[in-house]
Amino acid sequence: MKKISILVLLIILGAVLAACNSDEDAAATDGEVSGEITVWVHPFTGDANAEEAMWDEIVASYEEKFDATVTIETIPWGNRDQKILTALAANNGPDVFYAIPDQMPQYADEGMLLELDPYLEDNNMDDFVDSALVSTKWQDKTYGLPILQEAYTLFYNVDVIEAIGKDPENLPSTWSEFEEWAKAAKEEGYYAYSYQGGGSMNGTLYPFLWQAGGKVVTQDDEVMINNAEGVEAFKFINKMYEKGWVPEDSITAMNHDAIWNAGEMLAVQGSGISLTNLQESGLNFVIAPPLKNKEQKTYGTTGMFVVPTNSDNPKAAAEFVKTVTSAENQRRFNTVTQYIPTRESAKDIFDDQKYLKQLSQYTQYALPGVIHPKGRNIMPMIQAEVQTMMEGKKTPQEAADAAAEAIEAEIAK
Q1: For 311, which of 95, 134, 275, 350 could close a Cys bridge (C-beta 3.0–4.6 Å)?
Q2: At what angle do helices 327-337 and 314-324 cross, to 10 degrees?
Q3: Cβ 147 vs Cβ 330: under 8 Å
């Protein structure tokens, strides 16, 4: 049996679901919350028993409030796009499912997701971290509510800091200050930073581009990656490579764990997920706030719950999304998963955890990537141009211009 392409499914769903949108406002206000809903989640930890108990508590908090029944189904991360789209196209999918930032705009743009704004008047939206809501909106409409967030920032090796004559209590906060430290590290035989050129743009180019005040592409399809701010980010990366501040294999490297673990690198990009490995490495490290050039920004994914437009019970589904992302349930969920809550009032779960408490303060600077239906598709195109620049075959301006041309061509398809 041939695999059904995601693009074909999106086209089918766009046609099938478009007729549902006109009834959303009425559905938000009419009738009681009752009936049954099915929620698809993923395994967020390696402890299935802890997650089952967590979901039992979350479901109980919903069923105590509403005359409705919730069934939680855990699906694997692998092939999740195809599984979700196939199920929705067959009209037997979930009423609520978990989505990430590069999925939401694809689905919303095709009319697959229920707009949640009509349901949110009583939801205390001011408690959400502003940056967490960025990934939930497409064309000024809200299609999801966030439950978890990350914030990537720089982790420094204290022994290297002291070896280069710097102060671990006074870490770099700007590009220029980081450059001074990078020069000192190079002079003493250390690498300054891990640039993983074979990895996602979210962890390589994009943070520097945002810090420079730039954007990749807007939701109105305006390509901005090659404006002055974008080129400044290309130049900064090229400078790090030419100066030897990053390892020689940074063009295509997926990680520099061996170099970091050997104590030969000043700083790496990390998040809450990195903490376990960093603590097990035995290295003495400190965490700095995200760097700033024109702006103080970094990358951090956001996880959200969304409702498909062909849900048989949209009001009950929307109320579940509100319930699962309440402060009380974010405490439950993120205590188990060790992600950062997207509600400010729920961050108190980390008051006794030094590093996670510090990282939770940085989510205000964390952008979730490029929120655009083509956001996932354009990444390898941009990556190829950055790599070509680092190989010395293009100038930063030429690489940025070529990336812009590739993005425009992809959007035009």
Answers
A1: 95
A2: 60
A3: yes
